[in-house]
């Protein structure tokens, strides 16, 4: 990887913005970086002023590391900013174009969306939800999911969206940790032509969640309007979304909340076995979501904007719901898979809805590359004017392909680096200003202080090290739900007062950042964060597994895939030896059951022992080398060097 990047750095190929784009861009003043840096608080206050506040703040920032408060004393409402404030000027503008996987289309104007959200906010009130309560959302990508999020925001309730692909156990853990009072789910959702039974999974989770008082269920009707009647409803606990909506009033004034009032928690993987609930608050989060959307995607009133992320991830929070709606944009939502019914579904959607801005992940781009450029070439993609990438480093080959075949060598590409914790985009080109280089996320957004530091915290001007953010920013996480110590430990203990991202990066002579991947025990599989410990715990939970170790290995499409080394218990030896394929499948299914299909290991290697240092730490680097079939490095610290030799032999046999 390093060599590949070195070659590119030398080549230093760059793509400046076209004159046309520069002339019409929302921001085209290159001095904006200096201006923002010279008065960071004034600059961020300027952005916040573009939102509507019930009461202005008294102070822009209060910073007592590692705790920040932004727009202190100000009050606002996120749903008001995404809906109400647009009604006068663009009430009849389309806010959401939704397309289900079977092909049905629903459109909502800002006025209609406002009405739905107001009604559902009243529904939430009617089941006893009050400001500060946590509401879990476990839904497919249907309009009701966005309505549910905005309705929570409207009454000051805290949403905790859980990706619909997560298992019952994963959902249960997240509900329990947040102590959610209400769960909003759906009968099912479509994925590759099949109905994913969400309600059934939710039932299994809720059975072990005493905090849940009510479950609200949206009906996912099929394209032919047939109701999915397969679900069972528990009397006194389960309520139909459509029943409640029928009798709900559409008058629900927003609850004004403090700028630092919690807007949502979103669980993400870290270096320990249990995912952590990242906490975001209202004023700062919304300000950055709004600002980055406007400048990074150059959002204009007539844009049709499509971010392909699921609302279960942070990208779905900042760049499907809050950012674009706060800007009054038209947002496309698509429920299903990119390869259903055919591998050109995305291009068909772009053509049909005349999408102008398209934001997706490198893993998808690599899959498109594999499926061939004939597919996009046979569609009319001329509506596109800007492309984005997020979630993992984009390899230069994929960047160039995206530029050539999707952007027709005309659309700027914004490769945006950020995290669940940062709430909004941190490192990115500004399409009217920045000359892009394939594979580089380029420069920190104006008002963001990102640096490359060494172990001791010395800044590295040119070269590689740890990526750090050295000043507070409005959308920074405010903590980990229920675990202040871990917040401190995880992000702020490497260097005092400085945020540690967990990523390695490198900076070139032009000051451009090149992201090199995680430096901790977090894997980025197809753009999804998964902790090695999480998968290891899931494997060890299987009755035939004694010990397990996981590493991320390179994968052509996913970027990273999971390889698991497993020590089998005596009782499992027979199965593992006689029918290894069955055994492997059983373990993979077990991981899917514990976490979700996204965490399934690509490869499972059965071993008699694991390479450990004398102090008992598993040597992951070595496992990675073995799993990827590379020459082995220095093994002198191994307690039992023969372990490696036998592992290596085993790997070579299987390969
Ligand atoms: C990785 C997703 C390189 C990175 C928004 C980060 C990236 C983790 C990029 C956060 C990018 C995200 N280039 N790497 N453009 N974007 N990452 O919390 O390792 O799901 O730490 O947030 O994804 O993942 P998360």
Structure, described:
The chain folds into two domains: 500 residues, ANL, N-terminal domain (Rossmann fold); 129 residues, GMP Synthetase, Chain A, domain 3 (2-Layer Sandwich), CATH 3.30.300.30. It has 655 residues and is α/β, with parallel strands linked by helices. The N terminus is likely disordered. It has an eight-stranded mixed beta sheet, with helices on both faces. It has a seven-stranded mixed beta sheet with strand order 5-4-17-16-18-19-20, sandwiched between helices. Strands 21-22-24-25 form a four-stranded antiparallel beta sheet. 34% of the residues lie in helices and 23% in strands. It is globular, with a radius of gyration of 24 Å. The structure holds 5'-O-[(S)-ethoxy(hydroxy)phosphoryl]adenosine (WTA).
Main-sheet strand order equals 12-11-8-6-7-14-15-23
What is the terminal separation in angstroms?
22 Å
Strand content range = 15-25%
* Unreliable segments of 5+ consecutive residues: 1-6
The Rg value, from CA coordinates, equals 24 Å
What is the C-level CATH assignment of the largest domain?
Alpha Beta
How many strand units? 30
Average pLDDT metric: 94
The oligomeric state of the chains shown is: single chain
Q: How many strands, what sense, and barrel or not for the largest sheet?
A: 8 strands, mixed
Number of helices: 23
* CATH topology group of the largest domain: Rossmann fold
Per CATH, which architecture of the largest domain? 3-Layer(aba) Sandwich
CATH superfamily of the largest domain: ANL, N-terminal domain
Bound molecules: 5'-O-[(S)-ethoxy(hydroxy)phosphoryl]adenosine
What class do helices, strands and sheet pairing give?
alpha/beta
